[in-house]
Design a protein that fits this description.
By secondary structure, chain A is α/β, with parallel strands linked by helices. Chain A has helices spanning 25-33, 47-61, 74-79, 82-96, 107-112, 116-125, 147-159, 181-193, 226-231, 243-257, 270-284, 290-310, 321-333, 348-357, 373-382, 395-401, 425-447, and strands spanning 17-18, 39-44, 68-69, 100-105, 134-138, 172-175, 198-200, 237-241, 261-264, 314-319, 337-343, 366-368, 387-390, 405-407. Chain A folds into 3 domains: 25-159, Nitrogenase molybdenum iron protein domain (Rossmann fold, 3-Layer(aba) Sandwich); 172-290, Nitrogenase molybdenum iron protein domain (Rossmann fold, 3-Layer(aba) Sandwich); 307-451, Rossmann fold (3-Layer(aba) Sandwich). In chain A, helix 1 (25-33) packs across helix 2 (47-61), helix 1 (25-33) packs across helix 7 and helix 7 (147-159) runs parallel beside helix 10 (243-257). Chain A starts with 16 loop residues before the first strand and ends in a 10-residue tail after the last helix. Chain B is an alpha/beta fold. A 6-stranded mixed beta sheet of chain B has the order 1-12-11-10-13-14, sandwiched between helices. A 4-stranded parallel beta sheet of chain B has the order 3-2-4-5, sandwiched between helices. In chain B, strand 13 (472-475), helix 21 and strand 14 form a beta-alpha-beta unit. The chains are: A alpha/beta, B alpha/beta.
């Protein structure tokens, strides 16, 4: 047993987190910043933060992830990191020539109280920021919230660039939330099919799913441009997908540039995608093209064809609030039974939403925000499940408890596909079902006695 | 671009100039001292700047002190509960991300698949985190009753002044049966992971080594220092040692357990693998307990054989020496067989190695065996002695960053110090050419005119590859895909790309096959589509 010291009996813990279902803010900020075209993320803190975040993102995407660091030493920690950041800005623009540097802070620079805005203004005054180039920033203290908060803060930081000319440009801002490059591509495809001109930000498609061609472009084709971010202030509205990931940025645009917004769930599964498409349709004032209705029908068809295998199957799921909420809704909609639900990110709203989504079920779901995977494992020991859904770290629980395991979320360190195949939208729903069904039926094929072994399922 | 460059004859001086050309002048001046064109001097080794601050913004490969302490040194010990005191990230990123394998048996204690954190919140930063740390230690103790609990400081802990050592002492006294001690390994200390190795090793030496009495039974007792069992390297070395009849009392710290550290003072010889991360522990073991040390290298079949012979010569026992020769002879059969099959495809190819604090040197051995030349190399966190040899240690400058890394003073233990060899025996060994405490560093093994670069960054890496076009580049995960996009295979020498082991005899065979696979893979020929290679449109399509 890999997790041999995890007892079945749940005892309360007030101080010790074991096997976290979250990580810290800065990595979310770094991921979001990679979704800006020509952007080099910069970590204002010790070297280790940047190295760890780059490693984690690289392992998840199997793609180059460039980011710089202020390389704090003890001296910088005592006297402040201004000199380090100024030097970094000069070096980055001279050597790597990005369009924009996106600075995020760390627990170190936050604890000593470095004022990034002031340092940026100073860099500007000293002429360290070449004309036409930008330094954007956000505060991401690691001791507040989680990686999701950091993502949200950097997306909000992007909207600081937006300005309003007073004239609407007819475009819709879509903030996709922390989803994969493939998902961002899928959102753009759906919007194009609907004939809705959108600005998607961040947009990591074309950045973190690049080709191998013998050429290395530190700043690939993809990503939202600075021009688009500036013009986001003239959009007719913003669709923010995910309360935790995207709402702050959307509301900031509303306050700052009077761009009205609507917060939706991330479109994983049938109903959340329905709501997303319906919102796009209403905004654009058009009818939904046949192609999308057909994709929806295919998803419904697959649910109906394979419903018997999902029915009443118990699921344990952990991950980030926005993603887990949509997934739980999808699982419930196909008559699966999410019995244990954990996010590492805090938020009473999360527990409330999960309880609402599962209210009609004949059992009470175990749900915890700011929980950890140690607790989830203990719950599973007390009430076993048929399927486990979450990031790669779940493989230790899955192996010990012999549970089929769907890798979904961040990070996925031991499989590929998330870069290329979306799980948002109806097509994404098809892929999720294909994966879930494969896992359940592989298990059935493995466990069925020879006498009842089936050819057709 | 890159292909055209290959036609130009670049001298090492040209390359160096090209690497520095784009930097702001101050940066160029500083980097120039870390880029050495190797030259053959008469009696000395050329000097390189190392173990100095990374310039902000250059995109370094380096990590932090915490990573070196918790991740590298303490990570591989299976039966200690490692609690990270700080915001959640530091514990999360060091959770199972290094490939130090361990063998706890069916029922042995093993906390390595767990991540423990105090998950500090803003209120802890404002009001102090000692109370929470104390509660976390208590909860860990109540849940697991481990032999040891280690506490690691992250950046904010040092800034807000939590006294993690006092808390640990208090809890240790309270429990009575659990050794609790702490590491002030805040990420901002030092200039790289190296400072963290030092902080970790000092605490292990102070709080753990010499606290146990029941060592592993056996003859010819050694410690293996600086071997972290990445990809099972330590397993392979232990297999070979066992075949030879040599007893490994303690590995620092691959596949290690609490008791192995505690009984390390019972060994009769310390064998140092990774000079960078641990040479000072070897010195302390000698001063305090009288255990002499030698430098070994189990990376490379020939290097392994040489290291085994060195151990045999030290103990001087004819039976042992004969057994070692027998093991080498048996193991080399397979090694030679694979090498003779692989070498025709690897001979003459070139490699670059930019990794670690000793690995860059060790892996040159394996490439030599494959007939491949290392054309450029350097360390991520090495010091000058790792480049130039131990003779420079007395002259190393102590700067603001190294000053705050504790050097512990040890003296001979009044009861347990004993000389393993009499001064006469030591002299006789030395007279016969046996070298104690000797390490010449990487530079003497590099050819004249090669480039040795400390703390290589992304820009320099890309330039080097474009200009010199090696057949393989060795570094880590952060560098892997940018180099591979250029069509050059990158072999990770931190994680081994999830393969290995590469140590010992079986490891050498694995490495030969792996390098053969990488440098001869067909995938590098698929990068251009047919219409990119021949874009001219023929007049009409020729149907069958």
């Amino acid at each position: 047993m890999l997790l041999r010291h995890t007892p079945k009996e749940v005892t309360p813990r007030s101080a010790l987190v074991i096997n976290p279902a979250k990580t810290c803010q800065p990595i979310g900020a770094m991921y979001a910043a990679l979704g800006i075209h020509g952007c080099l993320p910069h970590s204002h803190g010790s070297q280790g933060c940047c190295a760890y975040h780059r490693s984690a993102l690289t392992k998840h995407y199997k793609e180059p992830v460039s980011a710089a660091t202020s390389s704090f030493t003890e001296g910088a920690s005592v006297f402040g990191g201004q000199a380090n950041l100024l030097q970094a800005i000069e070096n980055i623009f001279t050597v790597y020539e990005p369009e924009v540097i996106a600075v995020h802070t760390t627990c170190l620079s936050e604890t000593i109280g470095d004022d990034i805005k002031q340092i940026r203004d100073k860099a500007d005054k000293q002429g360290l920021i070449p004309k036409g180039k930008h330094v954007i920033y956000c505060n991401t203290p690691s001791y507040v919230g989680s990686h999701v908060t950091g993502f949200s803060n950097m997306v909000k930081g992007m909207t600081e660039l937006s300005t309003s000319t007073g004239k609407k440009n007819g475009k819709v801002n879509v903030i996709p939330g922390w989803v994969e490059p493939s998902d961002m591509e899928e959102v753009k495809r759906l919007a194009a099919l609907m004939n809705v001109p959108i600005t998607l930000f961040p947009d990591t498609s074309g950045v973190l799913n690049g080709p191998l061609s013998g050429e290395y472009h530190m700043f690939p084709e993809g990503g939202v441009t600075i021009k688009e971010l500036i013009e986001a202030g003239d959009a007719i509205g913003t669709l923010a997908l995910g309360e935790w990931c995207s709402a702050d940025a959307a509301r900031n645009l509303d306050t700052k540039c009077k761009v009205p917004c609507k917060v939706l769930d991330i479109p994983f599964g049938l109903s959340a995608t329905d709501r997303f498409i319906d919102a796009l349709r209403t905004i654009a004032g058009t009818s939904v093209p046949e192609e999308i209705t057909r994709e929806r029908g295919q998803l419904v068809d697959m649910i109906s064809d394979t419903h018997q295998y999902y029915y009443k199957k118990k699921v344990a799921i952990y991950g980030d609030p926005d993603q887990v909420i949509s997934m739980v809704e999808f699982l419930v909609s196909i008559d699966m039974c999410p019995v244990h639900v954990v996010t590492g990110t805090s938020g009473a709203k999360f527990e409330k939403r999960i309880k609402e989504l599962t209210a009609h079920l004949p059992y009470e779901v175990n749900v915890k925000a700011w929980g950890d995977m140690f607790l989830l494992h203990q719950w599973i020991k007390n009430e076993p499940v048929d399927l486990l859904i979450g990031n790669t770290y779940g493989k230790y629980i899955a192996r010990d408890e012999d549970i089929p395991f769907l890798r979904w979320g961040f990070p996925i360190l031991d499989r590929v596909g998330h870069q290329y195949f979306p799980t948002v939208g109806y097509k994404g729903g098809l892929r999720l079902l294909e994966k879930i069904l494969g896992l359940l039926l592989d298990r059935k094929d493995r466990d069925d006695p020879e006498t009842v072994f089936e050819l057709t399922l | 671009m890159a292909t055209k460059n290959k036609l130009v004859q670049w001298t090492p001086t040209d390359v160096k100039e090209e690497l520095l050309k784009k930097y702001p002048p101050k940066v160029a001046r500083k980097r120039a001292q870390s880029i050495l064109i190797n030259e053959a001097l008469e009696n000395t080794t050329p000097e390189i700047q190392a173990n100095v601050r990374t310039i902000p913004g250059v995109i370094t490969m380096r990590g932090c002190t915490y990573a070196g302490c918790k991740g590298v040194i303490m990570g591989p010990t299976r039966d200690i509960v490692n609690i990270v005191h700080g915001p959640i990230g530091c514990s999360f990123y060091a959770w199972l991300t290094r490939r130090n394998q361990t063998d706890a048996g069916e029922a042995g204690e093993n906390y390595m698949p767990y991540a423990f954190s105090t998950d500090m919140q803003d209120s802890d930063i404002i009001f102090g985190g000692e109370k929470k740390l104390k509660a976390a230690i208590q909860e860990a103790y109540d849940l697991f009753h481990p032999k040891g609990i280690c506490v690691f400081a992250t950046c904010p802990v040092g800034l807000i002044g939590d006294d993690i050592h006092a808390v640990s002492r208090e809890m240790k006294e309270k429990f009575g049966d659990c050794n609790v001690f702490a590491f002030s390994c805040e990420g901002y200390k030092g200039v790289s992971q190296s400072a963290g190795h030092h902080i970790a090793n000092n605490q292990v030496f102070k709080h753990l080594v010499g606290t146990g009495e029941n060592e592993r039974p056996g003859e010819y007792k050694i410690n293996l220092l600086g071997e972290y069992n990445i990809g099972g390297d330590g397993f392979e070395i232990d297999r070979v040692l066992k075949l030879c009849g040599i007893t490994n009392i303690a590995t620092f710290s691959g596949n290690s357990s609490y008791n192995q550290f505690a009984t390390a003072h019972k060994a009769d010889l310390s064998c140092v693998m990774c000079h960078r991360s641990i040479n000072y522990v070897a010195d302390m073991l000698e001063t305090k307990y009288g255990i002499p040390w030698i430098k070994v290298n189990f990376i490379g079949a020939e290097a392994t054989a040489k290291s085994l012979r060195k151990i045999g010569q030290y103990f001087g026992d004819k039976t042992l020496i004969a057994r070692i020769e027998e093991v080498i002879a048996t193991e080399m059969v397979k090694v030679k067989e694979v090498l003779s099959e692989v070498k025709p495809r690897t001979e003459g190819k070139t490699a670059m190695i930019f990794v670690g604090g000793s690995r860059a040197h060790h892996y040159m051995e394996l490439f030599n065996e494959l007939g491949m030349k290392t054309v450029s190399t350097g360390y991520e966190f090495g010091h000058r002695d790792d480049y130039e040899g131990r003779q420079v240690i007395p002259n190393l400058k102590v700067d603001a960053d190294s000053r705050n890394i504790e050097e512990i003073e040890v003296e001979a233990d009044p009861e347990r110090f004993n000389l393993r060899k009499s001064p006469d025996e030591m002299q006789a060994l030395e007279a016969a050419g046996f070298e104690f405490k000797k390490y010449d560093g990487l530079i003497p093994d590099m050819e004249k005119g090669t480039l040795i670069i400390d703390d290589l960054n992304q820009y320099e890496a890309e330039k080097l590859v474009e200009i010199i076009k090696p057949d393989i580049f060795c570094a880590g995960i952060k560098e892997k895909y940018s180099i591979q996009k250029l069509g050059i295979p990158l072999k990770q020498l931190h994680s081994y790309d999830y393969g290995g082991p590469y140590a010992g005899f079986k490891g050498a065979v694995n490495f030969y096959n792996e390098i053969d696979r990488l440098v001869n893979s067909k995938v590098w020929s698929y990068m251009k589509a047919p219409w990119q290679e021949n874009p001219e449109l023929s007049a009409t399509y020729v149907w069958e």
